[in-house]
Amino acid sequence: MPNKVLNPGLPPDFKPEPNPGMPAPLKKGKQAKGHSEEDVLQPQQRLTFAGLLLPGMILFVVFFIGSFIFVVGYSFQRFSPTEGTIDGFTLDNYQKALSDESIHNIFGRTIRISLVVTGLGVLLAYPVALALSRIEGFRRTLLFVLVISPLFISGVIRAFAWSQAMVRPGIINEVLIWLGVIQTTGRLNLLYTEAAVIIGLLEVILPFIILPLSSSIRKQDPALASAAQSLGANPLVTFWRVTFPLSLPGLVAGTSLSFIICMGSYVTPDLLGGPRLPVMATEVYRQVNYMSDWSLGGALAFILLAFTMTVVSLYNRLLNGKG
Q1: Cα–Cα distance list, 47 to 43, 53, 72, 101 (Å)
Q2: Most buried among 115, 122, 153, 262, by the most CB within 10 A?
Q3: What is d(CA 206, CA 146) in angstroms, rounded to the nearest whole number?
């Protein structure tokens, strides 16, 4: 059959001349080499993105990295009880931090509390995250507000409220007596115990685990769980074989945030644990403000940060590899 002429007013061999005011079209095969039509706007997008990041990056560099370098610099200087910080490079502060048994106990307590709080947080967060991802409308909005409502209140106020609830005549003992769990003469003294610190930190970190988990679960296709149940899987097996593996990205994000917050927490352990249960953050504060030993305090702060970031990085790499 003869070729059809789309426009009978033009000769078959007509070729339009390119308009110098229009950009040349991308040649065939450009996308295979990593180029796309969106690349035309890439320079402008980069400038916009850099402009949005610049104020935050300046604040981050000045107030975090700058102050951190200042503290780390102190950690390599000598300290004298009579003369204070003495100029001169030394590793004595790190040697003391790594060899002192009392610091080992404090560091171990910090890790133990952080792991326990993160583990309990996951157990408590999953049911709430499942509910938050499955319901709709006003009920979801109400549950979401309840989850984030603790963040509207200062951490100092929340920790102080817990301290008042945990004393012997506090509301926790009154509720336990009303339920018949304990007798009036057997009131519990939860304040200044490790359990008190765990409870207080658990309330702090729950929103940071629930929200990423809920977002991750909500992205899952409901047909997957329905298909598993139609093949004979009960709800527990469906959760373990379908929902849980697909929620690993949210789990990694939430537990990483929880562990970081617990490792560096100061207010809650100080108010609920007191001086008898120091953690790394309170020990750094004690060395700097009470002992005026900025050198040892700087070394402890650097060890705490380096350990936390190493553990979180390895944990993220491990679980992300599985996911």
Answers
A1: 6, 10, 34, 52
A2: 262
A3: 11
The CA distance from 213 to 223, in Å, is 19
Residue 184, both tokens: 């009036």
Q: Which CATH class is domain 88-322?
A: mainly alpha
CB 170 within 8 Å of CB 178: no
DSSP codes of every residue in 119-163: HHHHHHHHHHHHHHHH--HHHHHHHHHHHHGGGGS-HHHHHHHHH
Domain ranges of the chain: 88-322
Residue keyed to tokens 């658990």:
202
Contact status, residue 197 vs residue 162, Cβ threshold 8 Å: no
- What letters, b where the CB count within 10 A reaches 16 and e where it falls short, cover 8-47? eeeeeeeeeeeeeeeeeeeeeeeeeeeeeeeeeeeeeeee
Place of tokens 């006003």: 138
Q: What is the pTM of this model?
A: 0.79
Q: Is the dihedral of CA 148, 151, 155, 158 positive or negative?
A: negative
Q: Is 159 a residue whose pLDDT tops 50?
A: yes
Provide DSSP, 204-257: HHHHHHHHHHHHHHHTS-HHHHHHHHHTT--HHHHIIIIIHHHTHHHHHHHHHH
SS3 assignment, position 80: strand
pLDDT tens column, 47-87 = 787 788 888 888 888 888 888 888 888 899 988 887 777 88
Give bridge partners of residue 65 from the DSSP assignment. none
Cβ burial of 232 (10 Å; 0-12, 13-18, 19+) is: exposed
